[in-house]
Amino acid sequence: VPGMIVAKSDADVHETASRFAEQARTSGMTVFARVDHRQGAMSRSMALLPNEVIIFGDPKSATPLIQCAPSIGIDMPMKALIWQDDDGQTWLGYNDPEWIAERHGVTDCPAVKPLQQAMQTLVKATLQE
Question: Cα 11–116–85 angle (5° rounding)?
């Protein structure tokens, strides 16, 4: 998917999502919500492979990005998607901050690199547990 960074996880969706949320909290971020799309589907008698979204962030990293372009607020806070594909593989993905900046016409925004690094660190810590 254009603009999305994706990594494989050896754990199942729920475990990967729990690890990610805990790593985000440990990193000083706020986890605003955890959305379980599969549970939502099942509540309407619909089938869906495991699929969860974690909405998280920190004003310290998001605000400088939004200051570059107020429209970036539509893409903040950050979101991570953890899902299982048809082969049973778990994936963790998120929107690349560089892609977000490009989408809003501020590719020169100095807040992009620090947020990219924070996301890489967060994903690496999640997948190493």
Answer: 30
Q: What is the pLDDT of residues 93-128, one digit of tens each?
A: 999 999 999 999 999 999 999 999 999 999 999 999
d(CA 112, CA 76): 13
Q: Which pTM was predicted?
A: 0.94
Residue 51 near residue 37, CB atoms below 8 Å: yes
| Mean pLDDT, rounded, for 44-54 | 98
**Which residue, 100, 110, 111, 108, is CA-closest to 3?**
100
As a whole number of angstroms, the distance between CA 26 and CA 97 comes to 21
How many CB atoms are closer than 10 A to CB 70?
9
Q: 7 Cβ partners below 8 Å, 6+ apart?
A: 91, 92, 93, 123, 127
Nearest to 50 by CA among 37, 35, 63, 64: 37
